[in-house]
Amino acid sequence: MGKIGIYSRNPRFYYRVLKILREREMPFSSIEDPENIGEEIVVIISHREDIQFSERQIFDNDALSAVRKSIPRLMGKNLFEKITIGIDPGPKPGIAAIGDGIVVEAFELSEICKIEATVKKIISDYESVQTIIRIGDGDKPNMERILLKLSGQIIPMEVVDESGTSMPHKTHNNALSAARIANIEEFKRNGPIIKNTKKKNSIDMEFTTIKSFV
Q1: Within 13 Å and on the Cβ side, how many CA atoms surround 81?
Q2: CA distance 62 to 195
Q3: Which of 14, 42, 99, 132 is most buried, taking the most CB atoms under 10 A from its CB?
Q4: What's the CATH code, domain 3-74?
Q5: Contact in structure between 67 and 21 (CB atoms under 8 Å)
Q6: Average pLDDT over residues 164-184
Q7: Are strands 157-160 and 128-136 parallel, antiparallel or unpaired?
Q8: In the chain, what are the domain boundaries?
Q9: What percent of the chain has pLDDT above 90?
């Protein structure tokens, strides 16, 4: 399985990348010697001010952008054919991004006012041939607020029937619902795959995630 390598002389950037990879449970290796890189290292994250020593390197000043740009490389490609962003509307919206059928991330925002900047950054960080946004219709007042905030986007937006996407959890898992909304055709065909699992592991149980490639 592939690993992400980290090489940077910028300590702030290095530790920020480290933190993100640990939070996402993505295996990585710190590279001390650029002339000794293991074959298991598929992609190397570096700051823009770092030296270039490998075709496997990607460069960015922003740690989150760098991690996102590394993900297609783990899947053996330079960019995605299609990114689908699913949004579960509510006071704390769920956000999920699916790249070529793989859930690359899913999370919950603390408030609606953050949605515009969050979606813009996802679109910017994940290079793809096609990108679409799908918004669930379950909370119409908040759905309309989200549509208004995203009205300046030039990519296609769809409002979809999200009925059933919050089941069977006793506590609404906004991130999981967002992933189901992004993948709504498959969800409507098959319904929820998981029946009873911890909220933390529910997305990994129901979807193929980036963890399958690392």
Answers
A1: 5
A2: 38
A3: 99
A4: 3.40.50
A5: yes
A6: 84
A7: parallel
A8: 3-74, 80-213
A9: 73
pLDDT digits (tens, 9 = 90+) for 111-127: 999 999 999 999 999 99
pTM: predicted TM-score of the whole model, two decimal places: 0.91
Pick the CATH number of 80-213 from 2.40.50, 3.30.56, 3.30.420, 1.10.3470: 3.30.420
Distances (CA, A) of 12 to 51, 54, 61, 96, 166: 17, 22, 10, 27, 38
Q: Is pLDDT of 196 > 70?
A: no
Q: What is the C-alpha to C-alpha distance for residues 137 and 187, in angstroms, rounded to an integer?
A: 15
| Average pLDDT value for the chain | 91
* Residue 213, CB-side half-sphere exposure with 13 Å CA sphere: 20
Alpha-carbon distance of 203 to 198, in angstroms, equals 10
Q: Please write the tens of the pLDDT for every residue from 58-108.
A: 999 999 999 999 999 999 999 999 999 999 999 999 999 999 999 999 999
Phi, psi of 45 (to 5 degrees): -95, 130
Give, as one character, the DSSP assignment of residue 212: G
Q: If you write DSSP's letter for every residue of 106-122 in order, what string do you get?
A: EEE-S-GGGHHHHHHHH
Other CB atoms within 10 A of residue 59 CB: 15
Q: For residues 81 and 51, what is the distance between their CA atoms, to the nearest angstrom?
A: 30
